[in-house]
Amino acid sequence: MVIPALDEAGQIAGAIQSVQLPDEDVQILVVDGGSRDETAARARAAGAVVIRSEPGRARQLQVGWRASSGDVVLFLHADTRLEPGWASALRDAMSRPSVVGGAFRLRFDRRTPALRLIEFGAWLRVKLASLPYGDQAIFVRRQVLEAIGGVPEVALMEDLDLVREMKAHGRVLEVPLSATTSARRYVEGGPLRTMGRHWLALAAWRLGVDRERVAHWYRR
Questions:
Q1: Which pTM was predicted?
Q2: Which of the two ends of the chain, N or C, has the fewest CB atoms closer than 10 A to its terminal CB?
Q3: Homologous superfamily of 2-189 in CATH?
Q4: Per-residue pLDDT reduced to its tens digit, 24-41
Q5: Per-residue confidence band for 45, with pLDDT thresholds at 50, 70 and 90
Q6: Are 143 and 65 in contact (CB under 8 A)?
Q7: Rg, C-alpha atoms of the chain
Q8: What's the rounded Cα separation, in Å, for the pair 100 and 109?
């Protein structure tokens, strides 16, 4: 379990607690990108091992999985929670030899019509294109990560690059359990406006637009 984090003191303990299992020792690595708050201390207090890294989600994911030891690596965002039963569902998915990895079903921690529309759009994207985003808690076999060189270290949309590489090696499934993620970005930026930005970024990714250029536009 790899959780990249940067200034997530208010969220990190909840993410860790959502994946701890009473009867299993789950390896939880929090890769801190230089937080200026209590993220690292709260992660340790919650039971995770904290690794320091240069900032940048792709870089942090790369550092984390290389420090991990499991046959399957799950990447969890610091503001995302997995529901009970996640480990059994993951094991069931990975028991199929043709499956190289997958993700969970997107759900927001707030319930509004606009956010439900975005959830439906995410479901449709995975259904039609097998293309989950990082906030759906992507998981992948270690041997596949090793074969593709790990997580692509790019400025933006490393999750899509990772899934594209995964699909070249086998099936990518959506597990029928939820990854409940914070709706804060959508609330702050406006749900439909933020969704539109995501779809434009996805289109740019598909067209092969320069990643630094997309990142500069996306973060404005």
A1: 0.91
A2: C
A3: Spore Coat Polysaccharide Biosynthesis Protein SpsA; Chain A (3.90.550.10)
A4: 889 999 999 999 999 999
A5: very high
A6: no
A7: 16
A8: 28
